[in-house]
TrEMBL record:
<dbReference type="InterPro" id="IPR009288">
    <property type="entry name" value="AIG2-like_dom"/>
</dbReference>
<dbReference type="Pfam" id="PF06094">
    <property type="entry name" value="GGACT"/>
</dbReference>
<dbReference type="InterPro" id="IPR013024">
    <property type="entry name" value="GGCT-like"/>
</dbReference>
<feature type="domain" description="Gamma-glutamylcyclotransferase AIG2-like">
    <location>
        <begin position="6"/>
        <end position="130"/>
    </location>
</feature>
<protein>
    <submittedName>
        <fullName>Gamma-glutamylcyclotransferase family protein</fullName>
    </submittedName>
</protein>
<dbReference type="InterPro" id="IPR036568">
    <property type="entry name" value="GGCT-like_sf"/>
</dbReference>
Length: 145
């Protein structure tokens, strides 16, 4: 498995509560990025990204710190209810996607957790930015990329 960076777009973004719980101290770099051809939807305290012909999702490209990759990917898979390719209980699927770094426009391959049919999508998030949506209380068991 290639040690690709992760594209995070919700509660794992820098400044969000799951970033502090799962990523703080385990990353080598974090940089703003966008996922083209995708749409962001509201979920129960966390967002869902899905592929779409139009739209983009705002987020961050996260690079694992040296030696942290294996543990980090395993923990994120558990957080996102990803049990492996095609597993019927997956809430998200982990896929490689092209994301675009904001600072230079370069396309980068990254892991992205995308919603499965089990997710039960809420309303689309205008502008594709989880941080710009109207805030609601977060449930006790937060999740997502």
């Amino acid at each position: 498995m290639s040690e690709l960076p992760f594209f995070v777009y919700g509660t794992l973004r820098p400044g969000a509560h799951n970033h502090d719980r799962f990523l703080r101290g385990r990353t080598a770099a974090e940089e703003p990025a966008r996922l083209p051809c995708a749409r962001l939807h509201d979920g129960p305290g966390h967002p869902y990204a899905v592929r779409a012909a139009d739209g983009e999702v705002v987020g961050d490209l996260v690079h694992a710190a040296p030696g942290a990759y294996a543990g980090l990917i395993a923990e994120l898979d558990r957080l996102e209810d990803y049990f492996g390719p095609g597993h019927p209980l997956n809430l998200y699927t982990r896929e490689t996607c092209e994301v675009v770094r904001v600072h230079d426009g370069a396309a980068v391959r990254a892991w992205v957790y995308l919603a499965t049919a089990r997710a039960g999508l809420g309303a689309p998030v205008a502008g594709g930015d989880w941080f710009s949506r109207p805030r609601r209380p977060v449930p006790d068991a937060p999740r997502t990329p």
